[in-house]
Structure formats: C-alpha cells, structure tokens
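Write out the bound-state structure for zinc ion.
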Amino acid sequence: MVFVDEGVAAAWPRLCAQITQYVEHLGDAAVLARTPVIIGGGEDAKNEKTLALVLAELATARLCRQSFVIAVGGGAVLDSVGFAAAIVHRGLRLIRVPTTTLAQGDSAVGVKNGINAFGRKNFIGCFSVPWAVINDGKFLASLSDRDWRSGLAEALKVALLKDIPFFEQLHASALQLMHRDHKLMNTVLRRSAELHLEHIIRSGDPFERSNARPLDLGHWSAHKLESLSRFQLRHGEAVAIGLALDAVLSQLLCGFPEREVLRIISSLIHMSLPVYDTLLEDSKAVIEGLEEFREHLGGQLSITLLKDIAKPVQVSGLRGEVIIHAVRILSEIWLGMSNLSDARPAQALG
Ligand SMILES: NC(=O)c1ccc[n+]([C@@H]2O[C@H](COP(=O)([O-])OP(=O)(O)OC[C@H]3O[C@@H](n4cnc5c(N)ncnc54)[C@H](O)[C@@H]3O)[C@@H](O)[C@H]2O)c1
Ligand SMILES: [Zn+2]
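---
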C-alpha cells in the first residue's frame, strides 16, 4: 500500500497513476491493496488526525504483517506513515521514498518515527528500522526554495560532528548550493545520508538508550523553536538557528575557535538559512526547551557541543545564564553579518 505526500502528488500529477501501472506490470510479484492514498504534507501530517486516517486506511485494506507500506514524501509524511506502519500488527514492512533534501540526507535513513502531540514535537513515536530507503534525486526539482535549503542544515550538522573535508566543501559551495546546483546537492545529500547511516550502524546506540545524543547538535533549541513558531519554521530552518546557537555555546563552554563559529554562521547565511530568530529572546521558553529535551532523551541532561570541527563533546549542567549570554552574542554576530546576504529574522521570511 502506497501513501503519497500531497505536495509531491501536486508537483508530479502522473505519479499515482504511474505507481499503479508499475505494480500492474509486476504481475503476481506484487499487488496493490488499493490505489495510492494521498495525505496532507508538512508538519500537519504529524498530528493525531492524520495518524488516525492512515491507520484507518491500513485497517480497511486488511494488510498482513508481511505487507509493505511505501511512504513517498517529505520527512513529516515519512514520520507519520512510518509510525502507523510500525504499530499496525506490531509492525508492517516500511519502504521510505524521501522527496525532500532533509529527508534524503537525514530523516529517511534513520530509525525514528512519530507525531507531535500535546504541543510537543515528536511526543508520540517509536524506533523502527525501515525495510528499504530509496533516494531519487529527481523529486528535488519541484521543491520550494525553503525546502530545497532545509536539508543543508542537517548536512552541515553531520559534517560539523564527523567530517572536516565535508564541512570545508559545504562552506566553500554554500552559495552554489543555495542557487540550486542539482549535481552538487545530490553529492552533498549522499554524503550526509552516508554519515547518518554510518552513525546509526556503528555508534553502538542506534535506539538512543544512553543520555548522550551525539547526532543532535543544534537540536535542543530547534525543537522548541519549531513549536514556539507554531511550526512556521521548517525543521531545517530551526536546526540552522540551533547550530548557530550551539556554535556560540561551544565557544563559551568548550574553547571552540571563534573563527569556526563565524565560518559556520556565514555558511548558513550564504545558504540563505536563518541563524537568528527573535523567539530566542523568550529566555523562559528557550530554557524550558532544554528541560523538554532532557525529558525526551531521559536521565541526566547532556547536550552535544564542539571542541573543534569533527570533535564533538558531551556537556552536562548547562545553565540558563549561559544560554541567555550566548543568545546575546549570536544576535550581535547576526546583526554584524547581515550585510552578507539579505539576511532577515526567520519570522520575517514567513
Ligand atoms: N525521523 C527522523 O529521524 C527525523 C529526522 C529529521 C527530521 N525529521 C522530521 O522531518 C520533518 C521535516 O521534513 P522535511 O524537511 O522533509 O519537510 P516536510 O515533510 O514538512 O515537507 C515540506 C513541504 O514540502 C512538500 N514536499 C515534499 N516533497 C516535495 C517535492 N518533491 N516537491 C514539492 N513539494 C514537496 C510537502 O508537501 C510539504 O508541504 C520534521 O517533522 C522533522 O521533525 C525526522
Ligand atoms: Zn533534525
């Protein structure tokens, strides 16, 4: 059974018919339980209503545990359909076909599924390994500029954590990537997906049982910013701001060189990603975000910062005053660099 993101179905109007024809062509090897189901894309896909709709479709189609669910879409649709697939009969087989830069370079190769609930990001969800992931670069042609850029934030994140040459490549080609160089984007997403996948396979903690969240640079504040903005900020945009903030925190707490802080922020600005948002000035809410992050991962609070590029370090005991100080420094850097591009606060970008 195939679920297709509405945004993808609109951009590729023949896709659903092509899927049906393709499966018919396979003869007895595969049978579609029904014609592809189109579901609303974006963060709205991650609510109880959409989840209920997907579950109802799966129930009506009477799929068994050896059936395949194929999810075609952005990270939000993949998270939501993936969660439904993981809980029906305690787990149907899931094939992800990511169609955004963020999903191709990061989320689709991961093991997490879920939806937002009670005003909290990814509050309900599970770990579950997909049967397969198919990245097709052609889908990226129809992305809006915002969604085209969003995946660059996650690519930059994983480069900063693990791969100096990859960071140098992203820094040097930030403008070219922003201007939609497809060939380069495909190379960047492949490397990003490889690094995320390698981490899941080799880190020894694919289901995040420990306190540490070594892939979550920039994410503690990003999740809070997304919900504070009522999901007007894309995940990738919130991660970009989170990376800029964590770069400054790394300088304050771990001796991360100032020169690198500035290179990270200028790369993000050249990619046309936001690096600051006035939502950060709501210190009470931002500090609350830290506690929500702790609760989500369990145990003692520990966040990932950097000693240097590709030298991550776990930091515990982060205090509110340091965060407020870092936000102030970031706003000064951002104001100082706003001549680099037409950089405006993310909110103003709508
Ligand atoms: N599971 C994980 O490990 C993980 C990791 C990172 C992010 N995420 C989640 O992924 C979500 C963000 O995903 P995203 O950045 O892919 O955005 P998205 O899924 O919110 O999609 C953004 C928009 O693009 C549209 N769209 C998708 N593909 C398209 C295409 N090819 N052409 C035209 N329009 C298209 C969608 O309909 C939607 O309107 C967030 O909810 C985030 O929490 C999950
Ligand atoms: Zn992320």
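---
The pocket of nicotinamide-adenine-dinucleotide (ligand 1) is lined by residues 5-8, 11, 41-43, 46, 73-77, 79, 99-100, 102-103, 106-107, 110, 112, 139, 142-143, 147, 150, 234-236 (CB under 6 Å).
The chain has a mean pLDDT of 93.
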